[in-house]
Amino acid sequence: MLPELRDLLFLDIETVASTDNYNALDERLKTQWSRKANFFKRDSEQTDESIFHDRAGIHAEFGKIICVAVGKFFDTENGELGLKTKAYYGDDERELLSEFKMMVEKLDPAVLKLCAHNGKEFDYPYLCRRLLVNGLPLPPTLNLMGKKPWEVLHLDTMEMWKFGDYKHFTSLDLLAAIFQVPSSKSDMDGSQVNKVYYEDKNLEKIKDYCVRDVVVLAQLYLKMRSVFISQPLVHKHSD
Q1: Tens digit of pLDDT for each residue in 167-180?
Q2: What number of other Cβ atoms are within 10 A of residue 237's Cβ?
Q3: How far apart are alpha carbons 190 and 185 in whole angstroms?
Q4: What's in the keyword line of the UniProt record (predicted)?
């Protein structure tokens, strides 16, 4: 394995609204959501409640994490490049974040590089905010307090693709398409996570989707770093 691949940890998170019952929110949070919802309303038929179910999951103050999937490269017995994945998921956000935090803290923060797609705008800050909301101290690799920019070992494949273009947003699925990486969107996409969680009660489906995103992310990273592998990436998952 190339040295630059050894200390990478790929990750992806799936988030939903903090509750399926908007009326269960306390009045202070309802007031705060109403202010935010005003920015999203496109017509008079949209209510604070309807927008909450559609949009709350992408805001750490009104959403929660239900799955964190991670992946790390390894050398197979045949000398091929493989990817080990694991998912931390469940209805208890504090429990899954505690498990994720313990795993990350076993890795050396001086060399560990996190990699996510749009991670700097979404995954990393969302994780930090929900860890703190749940009363969990940030692990060193996510704690940016007092760090200089070059000391922050966070990679972002969307930023890598921007090449300095601050206006450019490109989805993981589009990049996977142009680099001919198999899509993770076989039976669902990110817009359906809230419904699959609250209406279908199918957390396993969301977990599998999240893991597939990590596999796509790892393959995309190899393409973007011009790392050629002669055989398909070997994938091993453990729960």
Answers
A1: 778 999 999 999 99
A2: 16
A3: 9
A4: Exonuclease, Hydrolase, Nuclease
